[in-house]
């Protein structure tokens, strides 16, 4: 089973792989950037319209980068308590929308804060930046072409 935190095991399926199987970012293509089952549940809340689903996606796209900056501020200030709160909030948003890799990285950050420190958070934060960018691109693609 692939490690949800391994960036090589969880590349966006929206990137075209080269002949070596990797996309332009050097990632292996994978379906795990988005949880399509979760997205479908949210989409199907209003089967006759995509308006509610589009609002969910737009809200995440607008607020997630701000949430990452809160996580970053906690790491820079070595504030473990703030790291727990900010990572927990983004984790919930990501998992509710169906963005599991971002959620898993936030859980790892939250656990560091629970241990009372931020050591190692800079590496996770770098990965979070990459995975959030990939997730946002994948969400925009879902909005443009649909879930099927």
What features would you describe in this structure?
This protein has 148 residues and is an all-alpha fold. The chain is built from five helices and no strands. The chain has helices at 36-43, 51-76, 80-97, 100-114, 121-145. Helix 2 (51-76) runs antiparallel to helix 3 (80-97), helix 2 runs antiparallel to helix 5 (121-145) and helix 4 (100-114) runs antiparallel to helix 5 (121-145). The longest helix is centred in the middle third of the chain and has 26 residues, at 51-76. The chain is elongated. The chain starts with 35 loop residues before the first helix and ends with a helix. Mean pLDDT is 84; it is low at 1-30.
Please summarize what this structure is:
The protein contains five helices and no strands. By secondary structure, the protein is mostly helical.
Low-confidence stretches: 1-30
Helix proportion: 55-70%
Radius of gyration from the CA trace?
A: 16 Å
Distance between the termini: 25 Å
Listing every helix as H and every strand as E from the N terminus to the C terminus, the arrangement reads HHHHH
Strand percentage lies at under 5%
Largest sheet: number of strands, sense, barrel closure: none
Which features characterize this protein?
148 residues; mainly alpha; 5 helices; elongated; disordered N terminus
List the helices and strands and how they pair.
Elements: H1 36-43, H2 51-76, H3 80-97, H4 100-114, H5 121-145
Helix pairs in contact: 2-3, 2-5, 3-4, 4-5
